[in-house]
Design brief:
The protein is α+β, with helices and mostly antiparallel strands. Helix content is 49%, strand content 23%. It has a 4-stranded mixed β-sheet, with no helix packed on it. A 3-stranded antiparallel β-sheet has the order 1-2-3. A hairpin with a 4-residue loop joins strand 4 and strand 5. Helix 1 runs antiparallel to helix 2.
């Protein structure tokens, strides 16, 4: 009973720590010609260490269940053991950390920007620019109308409230003359 309680507390602590400390880092670089956006997940290394240690904790729980009541060992093997094996295979993989913390990079030329939307409530500027579909994807598309559609991609430029005026001024200077920054609140399905 005590081991189940400790196990539950450990899982709750781990999930709270992982979700509370996980953040996405955005780095923007604006030059005269283009905007470059880099982002990655900044996850503490403690999370990856826990994923490697957690299966040993599971083995201890299974051994305690086997010693205290052999009937519980079957239930322990069906539940926590499978979770431990799964986490051991994921957390022990050397590529898992690199995959999860991978760097995403995108860029656009200032003269290609089609739309700019300012959302002062969320502290962001949403930019949209055209996107060319790679040739190998075009070959896989069956609908010819889908190939002809205008495809766009975009990025959100986040800023702190104390930097709002400087960021807005910088972006307005860089935008093409035919693109005006519209101000509206961007509504997400998952936010208020």
């Amino acid at each position: 009973m005590a081991s189940a309680f400790l196990f539950s507390i450990t899982i709750i602590f781990f999930l709270t720590y992982k979700n509370g400390m996980e953040k996405t880092v955005f780095v923007y670089r604006a030059t005269e010609e283009r905007l470059e956006i880099c982002q990655w997940q900044d996850i503490p290394d403690l999370v990856f260490t826990f994923l490697k240690v957690f299966p040993f904790i599971i083995v201890g729980i299974i051994l305690m269940a086997l010693i205290s009541n052999p009937a519980l060992s079957i239930a322990a093997l069906a539940g926590p053991a499978l979770v431990g094996i799964l986490l051991a295979s994921v957390g022990g993989d050397s590529n898992y950390k690199a995959m999860y913390k991978r760097l995403e990079r995108s860029e656009c030329r200032w003269d290609e920007v089609l739309e700019a939307t300012l959302d002062t409530h969320h502290g962001l500027i949403a930019l949209t620019w055209p996107w060319e579909i790679p040739q190998e994807w075009l070959a896989q598309m069956k609908d010819p109308e889908e190939k002809e559609e205008n495809h766009t991609q975009g990025a959100n430029l986040y800023f702190r409230k104390d930097q709002e005026s400087q960021v807005i001024e910088l972006i307005k200077k860089k935008l093409p003359p035919n693109v005006k920054m519209t101000e509206e609140r961007i509504k997400y399905d998952f936010s208020g």
